[in-house]
Specification:
The complex is a heterodimer. Chain A is α+β, with helices and mostly antiparallel strands. Chain A is built from 1 helix and 7 strands, in the order αβββββββ. Chain A is 16% helix and 31% strand. The chains are: A alpha+beta, B mainly beta.
Chain lengths: 134, 329
């Protein structure tokens, strides 16, 4: 009887580890892959080098057209802006935002792709900026 | 059997607990039986020419064994003329304020040595020393030897340092009036007429505008034709010869206690200025707010600076700035 209990206790961690690996897969970034298929940007912010918002009011996010429209303050230096995306739960962004981004080429707007929590749905958003006129 | 083992273990644990408490008896250290001294540095942050380094030097001897005769400080590089050692001993009052008690005659500077001669019969004093950093110390290291003598002829000393003296300069509370022209090299603002006489020195234009629908307010703008065309210099006629594109990187909140004076523990040093990456920067800034900061590099790369905005009221022209500036070449 005692030997059976010992064996159970020895095997239990292995069984738990095996099930854990199978139930909670992670992606190449070490993020949890979930069952969520929602894939959208819920809000967008743009910061200057002083880490303060440069957007005049609030950015408009069109989740159907997959477009973000924002008007930035007159005199904003478009060469160095830090975009901040708020995404639906479990989604992630590609490419990652790791520093200031150059938005100065207004004819070729920047694009980012949102990837759903289950990593099966991908939607590419285009960020259109306009500069406030005096 | 198991119950007996538990009781035994418990007894051993209690015995160890008592034993450990009784072993650590405190022994009162022997008192000081002769003249002794101690020193601490009171000032913080980078040391700059024109500024000061402040110390508190304490000396004491047992009551009844004599009295203090003199205290002196020897600096490895003689301080500026205004260097002095307090002839008052300070202690903290009931409300936390500094209370000074005169113990001797005002200090005398002789070369790099500053001396106070005691005129009061006292066995303990804490004197403050203010070393005014001279031009000769720029970019060098300076160290100090504090010493005290008593009526028995005994002398004690305490070495402090070495401390590095920065290469940069600092200027506080520079007033910028509307439509003024600013020189990083001079750390000064000029009128249009003055700027026309020395266009090679002008790096930025300060202006304040209230424009409907946009946040223009306070602005620092390089005097370039591109910035005029972009509308960043409205109603400004640039004097002939002004064309420098000065690099600006805007930040927010204090990066320097010495410039802001209402922040603590953050300082811009020579190293910060010399290693700052200007690859991402602009040559103008509009909508400047109080507490904004700017990392600046002149068009020819000769100077780098950190400018802090001390005061900028939203709807009133005029701005007060403080800056640190490092010559790079």
């Amino acid at each position: 009887m005692k030997s059976i209990i010992k064996k159970i206790f020895l095997l239990l961690p292995l069984v738990l580890a095996w099930t854990a690996c199978n139930d909670y897969p992670i992606d190449e970034d070490g993020l949890l892959i979930t069952t969520r298929s929602e894939c959208y940007v819920s809000s967008f912010e743009l910061l200057g080098t002083d880490q303060r918002s440069v957007i005049v009011d609030v950015a408009t996010v069109d989740t159907v057209a997959q477009e973000i429209h924002a008007e930035v303050n007159f005199g904003t230096d478009l060469h160095a802006l830090w975009p901040q995306f708020t995404l639906v739960t479990d989604a992630k962004l590609e490419p990652k935002v790791t520093g200031f981004v150059d938005f100065s080429d207004l004819d070729n707007p920047r694009q980012w792709t949102v990837v759903s929590g289950n990593r099966k749905v991908r939607k590419t958003y285009t960020v259109y900026l306009t500069v406030q006129e005096p | 059997m198991q119950m007996k083992q538990c009781i035994g273990l418990l007894a051993v644990g209690v015995a160890l607990l008592f034993g450990s408490c009784q072993d650590n008896t405190y022994i009162i250290p022997d008192g000081v039986n002769s003249l002794t001294n101690d020193c601490l540095k009171r000032s913080l942050g980078p040391n700059m020419v024109g500024g000061s380094i402040e110390f508190a030097y304490a000396m004491a001897m047992p009551y009844g064994s004599g009295h203090l005769v003199s205290a002196s400080v020897e600096a490895s590089i003689a301080g500026a003329d205004s260097t002095y050692l307090e002839h008052r001993s300070f202690h903290t009052g009931d409300s936390g304020e500094d209370v000074g008690v005169e113990i001797g005659s005002p200090s005398i500077n002789d070369g790099g040595t500053t001396t106070v001669t005691f005129t009061k019969d006292t066995v303990a004093a804490t004197l403050r020393y203010y070393y005014m950093i001279p031009e000769e110390a720029r970019g060098k290291q300076v160290s100090f030897r504090f010493s005290a003598t008593d009526s028995n002829g005994k002398e004690v000393s305490y070495d402090m340092g070495p401390y590095s003296i920065e290469n940069m300069d600092m200027k506080l509370d520079i007033e910028l009036s509307n439509n003024s022209f600013f020189s990083i090299e001079d750390m000064a603002a000029y009128t249009a007429d003055e700027a026309a006489a020395m266009p090679e020195k002008i790096d930025l234009v300060y202006l304040h505008r209230v424009q409907r629908g946009i946040k223009f307010n306070h602005a620092l703008v390089s005097p370039t034709a591109e910035n005029v065309a972009a509308g960043y210099l409205p109603n400004i006629t640039l004097p002939a010869g002004l064309d420098k594109s000065t690099k600006l990187f805007k930040s927010y909140s204090s990066c320097d206690q010495q410039l802001a004076r209402d922040e603590y523990g953050v300082f811009v040093t020579d190293r910060d200025l010399s290693e700052f990456d200007f690859s991402i920067c602009s040559n103008y800034s509009i909508g400047i707010l109080q507490r904004n900061g700017f990392w600046v590099e002149t068009a020819d790369g000769r100077y780098r600076a950190y400018i802090y905005v001390n005061e900028a009221t939203e709807n009133r022209a005029g701005m007060t700035i403080s800056m640190k500036r490092l010559r790079m070449q």
